[in-house]
Amino acid sequence: MGAPGATRSLILIPARMASTRLPGKPLADIHGEPMIVQVWRRAVEADLADVVVAAAEPEIKAAIEAKGGRAVLTDPNHPSGTDRIFEALQACDPDRTFDRILNIQGDLPTLDPRLIRELDAMLSDERFALATLVARITREEERTNPNVVKAVVAWESASQGRALYFTRATAPWGPGEHWHHIGLYGWQRAALERFVALKPSSLEMREKLEQLRALEHGINIAVVKVDYESIGVDVPADVARVEAILQTR
Fold first, then answer.
1. Is 4 part of any domain?
2. At 108, is the secondary structure helix, strand, or coil?
3. Which of 157, 179, 209, 244 is surrounded by the fewest CB atoms within 10 Å?
């Protein structure tokens, strides 16, 4: 449960077992608990809003409920996590109580709760229909790692800009900084409703990045630069890295 009076925002975490790079990823043991439980805990620690896991399979739902959390079952065949959270939103908020939806990726066990609060703060400005976060890439090997999604941003101030593209390639070309996209999205509810009515786009399917559907259909994505990065789990080798980080907390 979030802070008293936090009634406009809802945190939703999509999760599914069918990861190609790490099968059963939501239940991977991370520092003694399933990864999806670790992510759920980070979202609760933001002390901002109610948290619901949008689970594609019963075992994910059971893992969250065993810790006292809330989860809803969704169709396992959704093409993207955003489609999944929309089904969960309809199930848990039929009265449309919430008009800001925070989509937190289910593979970020080291998620800093401050990131969730930063995202929600952006949506207080209703000019932004969709918002996300990036952090500066500091590890050289991440520049060429396709599991690290890069954001190409037109910066309009020192900390805020507009997304031009997202890619698994190293972009933009040439010397200069690269930006690691952090898998959190803040939606105004109307924009989320528009997005899920669209068919998956060609670039989305090619790069396997659902945010490209928004860009291809003219939905601008506001980007905020943050100084604290959260490490995602994409392959088995990432597990040891995030466990080491959690052990220091």
1. no
2. coil
3. 157
